[in-house]
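Case study: VanZ-like domain-containing protein.
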Amino acid sequence: MITTLLVEHPWLAPTALAALVVLGPLVGRWLAPRPRAACAFTALALLPVAALTLVPVDRELFGRCEVAWVLPTFGRVELFANVVLLVPAVLTAAVALRRPLLALLAGSALSAAIELFQALVPALGRSCSTNDWLANTIGAALGAALGWLALRWAARRWSTLRG
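Here is what the predicted structure looks like once written out:
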């Protein structure tokens, strides 16, 4: 299970986030003049989101929804991984749409929809949590910021090539 993997290797999520922060703007800049490719990358980035949040798991639920507001930290490995989860999809969506704020709102809404679905379908064996939504939204904000950076970088490059 993913939680076990994250607990055994707590460096995975922070390393993935660092890689996204470094490589994300480069990939976004490359995708900026290729909106179809950016859409394809967004769809590809949403596959792990669906697999990690909507595929049923074999566990007994003791509660269906948790309402808590805890910020993710390196020590809370599963919550920190929730930050990383939406960064690639929102980054590439921001580039594809050329609207980072819209991509951020869509990422946050997607996370809320996932949590609602988990609450309404207990057969999934997944519990909803406001903490997950908060962590996903923080990740979406980071993805949108990286997408904005990539778009600014690409625009600067285009103006230099034209000028």
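For the exam, be able to explain this: Residues 25 and 150 are 5 Å apart (CA to CA).
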